[in-house]
Amino acid sequence: MDTLVMAALGAMLGVGLLAVMFTLMGVRLFSGFGAGLRRSQHNVEALVAWFAGAFVAASVMWAWTNWPVGGLWVFAGIMSIPLLRGEHYNADVEIAKVEAIATWTEQIRDTMNASAGLQQSLVATASNGPTPIRSELANFARRAPRGDLSGALRQLGADLNHPAADLVIVGLQSATELDAGRLVPLLSRLASSIRDDVQMRVRIEVSRARVRTSMKIVGFFVAMTVALMIVAGRDLLSGYESGEGQVWLLVVGGVVVVAIWSTRKLAHVPQPERFVARRPVE
């Protein structure tokens, strides 16, 4: 027992010394912890409220129609709304991140054109980088002056975790290890290529917005038609009151779910595999 207590005290002392050392080196160990906790609490509260609303709506549907499968589909439909809306938000975040990588690449190029060295340019641009990747660049700016610039760039690539950033990181690493004489033209071509990627994504999202609007209109009128039939045309839906009818209602709902899932799957833009951070061979 005494051995375990001494081992625990030694481990706590070691962790404390490491925390002091990292703090003196300028590494923020718990940066964003409070904001992340508040964000998680807000998400949990929103999920609980949404769950309660979906449960109430499903209960009303079940009580009104005496269809347990109908209540199930109402609950599943309401709970899926945040998931369907979240994909569009992620697309906007993805576009902003790619555009920020292109902007940072152009900043490095312009700073080097002003007769600044590579490391000086990297630290200067990382200290005031674009907002979507500012936290990753700020961490890089704290690591870069310690000497291992190539290692700091590798860690930056892992933090950004994006194929477009890999292109820039590989070019910068090559310049640190070989020759930076042709880095400025390379950065110009990379920035132009990443900008083209951004424009492609924007065009895709604009075309998808029209499709999403059409789907919302169709879904709204279908839902209103079903609601009107449930309220005023119960005789037309009497076949669903039996057990066999509930099975067919389950099949109809399944067809709708598969159709929506297939539409979302076809609209997904696959990301190319990252070529910097490969999985280790087991």
Q: What would you note in describing this structure?
A:
- The protein is an all-alpha fold.
- It has helices spanning 2-24, 33-65, 68-113, 118-127, 134-143, 149-160, 163-177, 183-232, 243-266.
- Helix 3 (68-113) runs parallel beside helix 9 (243-266) and helix 6 runs antiparallel to helix 7.
- The chain is elongated, with a radius of gyration of 27 Å.
- The model has no long low-confidence stretch (mean pLDDT 76).
- It has one domain (46-266).
- Helix content is 79%, strand content 0%.
- Outline the low-pLDDT stretches: none
Overall 3D shape: elongated
- If you average the pLDDT, what whole number results? 76
Would you report the number of β strands?
0
What is the gyration radius calculated from CA atoms?
27 Å
Helical content stands at: over 70%
Class per helix and strand makeup: mainly alpha
Distance between the termini: 39 Å
The profile of the biggest β sheet is:
none
Number of discrete domains: 1
Question: Strand-residue fraction?
Answer: under 5%
Tally the helices: 9
Order of helices and strands: HHHHHHHHH
In short:
By secondary structure, the chain is an all-alpha fold. The chain is built from nine helices and no strands.
